[in-house]
Write a structure and sequence with these properties.
The chain has about 300 residues and is α/β, with parallel strands linked by helices. About 35% of the residues lie in helices and about 25% in strands. It has 9 helices and 14 strands. The strands form 4 sheets. A 5-stranded mixed sheet has the order 4-3-5-14-6, covered by helices on one side. A 5-stranded mixed sheet has the order 11-8-12-7-13. Strands 1-2 form a two-stranded antiparallel ribbon. Helix 1 crosses helix 2, helix 1 packs across helix 3 and helix 2 crosses helix 3. The longest helix is centred in the N-terminal third of the chain and has 25 residues. About 30% of the residues are buried.
Length: about 300
């Protein structure tokens, strides 16, 4: 087995915490994977993994080596894809999953553009706000926001999804404009229950300090469109992704609040059932998405009312 394959095995053991899972991914045996990692440790003369009855974890040296190996494995995969891609037709059905709001505002226009560029591809869009098992639901690739929970999936980070605090000008005229995070305690807030379910908003203050504020409000929803509608109807201050607020900020129906503060950003990932033997249609779609979420990517979105639920 060459060194790149051994590095790939080590990376997947570090990510899954299981020699058995990695053996299944590589269609080999658990002793073979164990032997490869042990040989790597012997060659480097350093322990990379701690092994005990609770599982596998990286040592300090292992964590450093993991980051380097992960970059190498990723670069090799990209190089092979670049060579293979032009010689292979992109065709067949591509089933794409996403959350509802992100799917409606972001994924739909991207999927339509991808279909125009690849006329032999048929796309099936599936939008769910609950966690979806990709294999059980036949999803080829999903766009997910936030920290990934399932390390057995293949994944590619595409960018970040920033959040903003917004309110209508009329609400702020009537109730005052918050000048610092602590002022939010005196305001009606519109709470996104899927993320801010504990009524605590966390952010970085103007000086970069971590701030936590307990908020209250009459409206709570797991639907971002409902919170945006409430903010536009002068009912309070909402924390929403910038891509959701963008058009309403542009037309002045809402304004940004506490602009000097920063809410936590979510990573945007493309995830797929397995990191090995990724279908060409999935590779092509991920390559198409690369660069689409750089800098102020929400500026490229069409009007939010152009595509109805």
């Amino acid at each position: 087995m060459d060194r790149i394959d051994a590095m790939h095995m080590f990376v997947r053991v570090a990510e899954t915490g299981s020699f058995t899972k990695v053996a299944h991914e590589f269609t080999t045996t658990q002793p073979t994977v164990t032997k490869q990692v042990a040989a790597m440790e012997a060659r480097l003369a350093v322990r990379l993994l701690n092994r005990n009855t609770r599982g596998v974890s990286l040592t300090e040296a292992g964590a450093l080596y993991y980051e380097r190996c992960k970059a190498i494995v990723s670069s090799v995969a990209e190089a092979e894809s670049a060579v293979r891609g032009p010689q292979t037709r992109v065709q067949g059905q591509l089933r794409i999953g996403s959350s509802v709001a992100f799917g409606r505002r972001v994924v739909i226009p991207l999927a339509l553009e991808f279909m125009q560029l690849n006329p032999e591809v048929q796309v099936d869009l599936s939008f769910e706000d609950r966690y979806t098992d990709l294999v059980a639901h036949g999803i080829d690739v999903a766009l997910r926001l936030g920290k990934l929970a399932d390390s057995s999936l293949g994944a590619r980070t595409l960018g970040v999804n920033p959040w903003v605090l917004v309110a209508s000008p009329r609400y702020l005229r009537q109730h005052g404009t918050p000048r610092r995070p602590a002022d939010l305690r005196d305001h009606a807030t519109l709470i996104y229950s899927s993320v801010q379910g504990n009524d605590v908003w966390r952010m970085r203050g103007a000086q970069g300090e971590q701030v936590s504020v307990t908020v209250t409000g009459r409206l709570r929803s797991n639907n971002l469109s409902a919170l945006l509608a409430a903010a536009r109807s002068h009912m309070g201050i909402a924390a929403v992704p910038r891509y959701v607020a963008h058009e309403s900020l542009q037309d002045g129906r809402i304004v940004e609040v506490l602009k000097a503060c920063r809410l936590p950003e979510q990573e945007i990932h493309a995830v797929y059932p397995s990191p090995r033997l990724v279908p060409q249609k999935v590779q092509a779609f991920i390559a198409f998405l690369q660069g689409r979420f750089d800098q102020e990517w929400w500026e490229a979105l069409g009007r939010e009312d152009a595509i109805k639920k």
